[in-house]
Amino acid sequence: MFVIDSLIVKFALIGVLGIGAQWIAWRINRPAIALMLAAGIIAGPVLGIINPDDDLQGLLEPIVKLAVAVILFEGGLTLNFADLRHAGKGVLRLVILGVPIGWALGTAAVYCGAGLSLGVSALFGGILVVTGPTVIGPMLRSLRVGNRVRDILKWEGIVNDPIGALLAVAIFAAIQYGQTHGNVDLAEVVFNVIGATYLAGLMGALLGWGITWLFPRGYVPEFLKAPVLLVTVIAGFVGADLIMHESGLVTVTVMGLVMANRPMFSSRALRRFKEDLTVLLISGVFILLAATLDWETIQKFQGRFIIFLILLLFFVRPITVLLSLLGSDVPWRERIFIGWIAPRGIVAIAVTSLFAIRLVDLGYDRADALVPLVFAVVIVTILAHGFSAGYVARLL
Predict the structure, then answer these.
(1) Which residue has the higher pLDDT, 167 or 236?
(2) Which alpha helices (H) appear in 182-267, and where do they start and end?
């Protein structure tokens, strides 16, 4: 094991590893996320150079959450309603029908395959409805697929990320309420979550409208536009998160969506700033999260978890997509391809890690198994879908 005491050296190393992995991935035309995960694991549990829990202590969680907020906002900025001309019905079905179907099937897979308790399985099943826009975006750039497939996967990934996080919030609230009061008042839990989601979405819409009203009218000078935008995103995320945990993800996504569909006359420098910032944040967060793994956590991975991973890849995702798109105008070949592509990324790891700690504090048996399980899901889906997507696209 190598020991480096200087925190500034470790920050520099995280940057070098993250950007270096992305450059190598570009050169060899392979998924960047897979190489970043490998770099983080080597620097973390293998060599012991980076230990985020000790190095950053209580700062790791807020750093990751703020980074995810900026990444989802940038994703929302890519959601132009014009893209929905051919993909709108498919996206709507995958959100309205796909989320409950995927949640039910995911919960059953965790409960039967991984052998976790029903409450923990339901929470993790909710998180599994996310499909990782930070992974799908780079993957789609290297694929030759039609616009409809591209738009469906892009919209589904960005829209479902906050939905999956809120599902986990609702289920955790139900678990916590049941432990405190002895029974679960489902109506109260649902009302609270829906109310917080509405307020978070409204806040995001107002912030997005405000920025697109201020910028074109010259109320913010050109050199301050990027900083003002970044600070507004962070403030909106934190403000909504104070209402209910993880609802800030809705705020930043809606804010990006509103800005993407209103004229802003932003400069090229502003667009490049948000893109460059997102690349840096994705690189750093993936290295940090991969480095948080330790041998004790890895050893909690059990052989039966493989059954769950097989169910997730070949049962949960394909059936969710095929049932959701049944009777739609999306051709069968495109449905099959969409049913195969579902890599998970930063949001799945960040949200699962957060709730795993809270469930352990509540005394839930085997809740600590969620951390190795979510890393297994991210690694397996990235490798399986990232390295096979081109082949499957050509085959279909």
Answers:
(1) 236
(2) 186-214, 222-243, 248-260
Q: Are 339 and 321 in contact (CB under 8 A)?
A: yes
Residue 237 one-letter amino acid:
F
For the record, the structure tokens of 179 come out as 């432990």
Q: Which amino acid would we find at residue 395?
A: L
Closest CA to 112 of 245, 304, 267, 299: 304
Q: Are the beta carbons of 208 and 259 closer than 8 angstroms? A: yes
The secondary structure of residue 50, as a DSSP letter, is -
Are 212 and 258 a contacting pair, CB within 8 Å?
Answer: yes
258/203 Cα distance (integer angstroms): 11
pLDDT, one tens digit per residue, over 304-318 is 888 999 999 999 999
Residue 178: predicted pLDDT: 64
Q: Which amino acid is at 349?
A: I
Residue at 318: amino acid letter = P
Cα gap 237→278, rounded to integer Å: 16
Give the chain's count of helices (H) and strands (E).
19, 0
If you ran DSSP here, which 8-state letter would residue 378 be given? H
Tally of CB atoms within 10 A around 318: 17
For 29-65, the pLDDT digits (tens) are: 777 777 888 898 888 888 888 888 788 877 877 888 8
Q: Which candidate, 232, 243, 94, places its Cα nearest to that of 161?
A: 94
CA distances from 375 to 43, 113, 123, 146 (A): 16, 16, 16, 31
